[in-house]
Amino acid sequence: MEKNPEPRPVVVFSGSQMEVAIIQTLLEDNEIEFFLQDEFIGTMAPWYAEGGGAGSVKIVVADSDVEKAQVVIEEYYKNIRQ
């Protein structure tokens, strides 16, 4: 009998609390499960949470959802550039 491997967590986005809140909503709308990493440092010390830098909030998904999450994030960036 073959076991299903445990899903591996993968960081798909790293940024400010505001950006994470927007992308979080988009992932929820697309039924992609995720969790936030380092979210409290972004709340307690937002000046320290530079987009993508040290102290930024990270969105983590299962390795099986990475491609779907990346499509959602790319669409978000495409829409804000228009």
From TrEMBL:
Domain spans labelled DUF2007: 11-76
Any Pfam family the entry gives: DUF2007
InterPro entries: DUF2007, N-reg_PII-like_a/b
Protein known as: DUF2007 domain-containing protein
Organism: Xiashengella succiniciproducens
Upper taxonomic lineage: Bacteria, Pseudomonadati, Bacteroidota, Bacteroidia, Marinilabiliales
